[in-house]
Amino acid sequence: MEAGDGHVELRRGDRVALLVPGSVAYVELVISLLASGRFPVPLDPKLTSFERQRILEDVRPHLVVETEEQLVSMVANTPPQYRLGLPRGRPIHVTSGTTGRPKGVFSGPLDESDARALVEEERSLWGFTDTDVNLVLSPLHHSAPLRFAMGTLLARGRVVAPGAFDPARVTEAIRTERPTTMFCVPAHLQRLFSHWDEVGVPDLGCFRLVAHAGAPCPAHVKRRLIELFPAESTWEFYGSTEGQFTACRSEEWLTRPGTLGRARPGRMMTVDDDGLLWCTVPRYARFEYLGDPEKTAAAWRHLPSGDAFTVGDLGRIDPDGYVYLDARREDLIISGGVNVYPAEVENVLAEAAGVNDIAVFAQPDEHWGQRVCAAYVGSADPVELDAFARERLAPAKRPKEYHPVPVLPRTATGKVRRNELPGISRSAPPDPLHS
């Protein structure tokens, strides 16, 4: 399989980093690469050169796609047997961790039986058919929107990708394209509802499936979602880059407010004595963290029900099997559906001049669920810190507030008491950058 430039020959098992904006052709290329035994690595095209270099050093791709022309050429040069063929694996999505070092989540190659089971699981749960029209709201380098778009194309449906999220543009796409499915995060819903309050609600009768995930959904937003969209069309699911756990119709949520639903078919959810949630998965849903066998080993354990993994989330399961999340994995900030790990941001900002100590934390945000904030010790100027962050961090990871403090609260073993940071930030003068 040629890379599209006529010079690079890709072999089975090779990795292809995608650093271009999402499009229908993007989804087609992901599918064709997987069908031919190659592994796409979807990455945020807005990554800074600093972030990009660090990730590519770990992922070690055989090819980096950086232009739309390169992408289109690769799709055009795809052999017919691989176009919308059976994916023999999952894309390698990169996720951070509490260490702050991004890692690729790698499923490895799948034989035909497991590959078909993987596709059928998504199709059975979400009902993808050739009459579906999937409206893409989120960037396609994220796992959930890419998974919904792939499922639609593999069922021979149609994908509509109107570009960067804009409520007016999405509303127009609903009117003209009449989508049947849509994945979103709560921040999308809030912005859409606000826009519709001004211009009127479009006809939403075309939707048979609207699924949301990625961040906690405020109850009033959830109820508005149920009110506006067709009955039994709205869902929430709980998952991560590593794998999928539960799915829940909104009607179930109404009877059990706060639940994330029960385990998806083929999976089993359990909770250990420490409140840690574990998910037993089929063979085709196993994964490893590229280049990190210790992190991989820590994520997995063998249970009587089979191999189970955890992403460090805490929760509980009621007698009927409904899962409730008490706390996301340690220190995770979810801003607009994007996972931000404080350690990764801290590792970058600690290199800035005038920063002696720094800790990153979340504050509630009406639109994004949470916003990234930083408290630091040192002489650094907030404006200069912001400029430093803009050179090295993608937009979602950049702190929106910087709070100089005399000292950071720490435990006897030196761990930052993150739960105390919002309090000390209120007593410190906030920077004027984002007020």
Task: Write out key terms for the chains shown.
23% strand; alpha/beta; four-stranded antiparallel sheet; Rossmann fold; seven-stranded mixed sheet; GMP Synthetase, Chain A, domain 3; 24 strands; 435 residues; disordered C terminus; globular; 2 domains
Descriptive report:
The longest helix is centred in the N-terminal third of the chain and has 15 residues, at 112-126. Helix 7 (186-199) crosses helix 8 (219-228). A 7-stranded mixed β-sheet has the order 7-6-8-9-10-11-12, with helices on both faces. Strands 13-14-17-16 form a 4-stranded antiparallel β-sheet. A 3-stranded parallel β-sheet has the order 2-1-3. Strand 6, helix 5 and strand 7 form a beta-alpha-beta unit. The protein folds into 2 domains: 15-327, 3-Layer(aba) Sandwich (Rossmann fold), CATH 3.40.50; 333-427, ANL, C-terminal domain (GMP Synthetase, Chain A, domain 3), CATH 3.30.300.30. It contains 13 helices and 24 strands. The chain is globular, with a radius of gyration of 22 Å. The chain has 435 residues and is α/β, with parallel strands linked by helices.
Please give the CATH architecture of the largest domain.
3-Layer(aba) Sandwich
**Number of domains as seen in the coordinates:** 2
Helix content: 25-40%
Number of discrete helical segments: 13
What is the β-strand count? 24
Q: Numbering strands along the chain, what is their spatial order in the largest sheet?
A: 7-6-8-9-10-11-12
Query: Distance N terminus to C terminus?
Result: 51 Å
* pLDDT < 50 stretches: 429-435
Structural Rg? 22 Å
Proportion of residues in β-strands: 15-25%
Query: Which CATH class of the largest domain?
Result: Alpha Beta
In terms of quaternary structure, what is this?
single chain
What's the shape? Answer: globular
CATH topology of the largest domain: Rossmann fold
CATH superfamily of the largest domain: ANL, N-terminal domain
Largest sheet: 7 strands, mixed
Average pLDDT works out at: 91
The secondary-structure class comes to alpha/beta
